[in-house]
Amino acid sequence: QDDNAICYLTLANDLIHQVNPHAITIAEEVSGMPGLAVKFEDGGYGFDYRMAMNIPDYWIKILKEKIDEDWKPSALFWEVTNRRYEEKTISYAESHDQALVGDKTIIFHLIDADMYWFMQKGDENYRVNRGIALHKMIRFLTATTINGGYLNFMGNEFGHPEWIDFPRDGNGWSNSFQQIGRHTNTPPCQ
């Protein structure tokens, strides 16, 4: 444990809230350090919120390891509420850490290539229908069990099919950030 770093973060949070009482600080860390998102006056480090980083990791893990018929509701509930009650958290279902490093987005785990061929009005595709229902359920469960706030994923939760990657030599310097914008060239609804 780095006492100097902890002291710095505590003093920085105290100063931030003295300078701007409306400021919000959010800790992104995975150690589970007690008191991180507890007020300084109450013996904490002064962050207003802690990122609930276990939740997006859990969703990807369960999507990779189990079919949805084997998901246990009690295990799902325990995972999305696994936090100290006195610490407010920012919950989120999907993480840029997964999508930026070449893994699949949640919707792509659920629907895969059927997304490209069976998403128009009138299509009846079991995998797409089930995937969209599970996508909604994952976000609903995550959003309704928060203890603080909810963080939207890139693209405002519309289930973008492609993963996002920084332009680099390994992907031919491709700019995949175009995947996160709203497309205005779609035909009007009829």
UniProtKB/TrEMBL annotation:
One of its GO terms (molecular function) is 1,4-alpha-glucan branching enzyme activity. GO terms for biological process: carbohydrate metabolic process. InterPro entries: GH (IPR017853). It comes from termite gut metagenome. This is 1,4-alpha-glucan branching enzyme. GO terms for cellular component: cytoplasm.
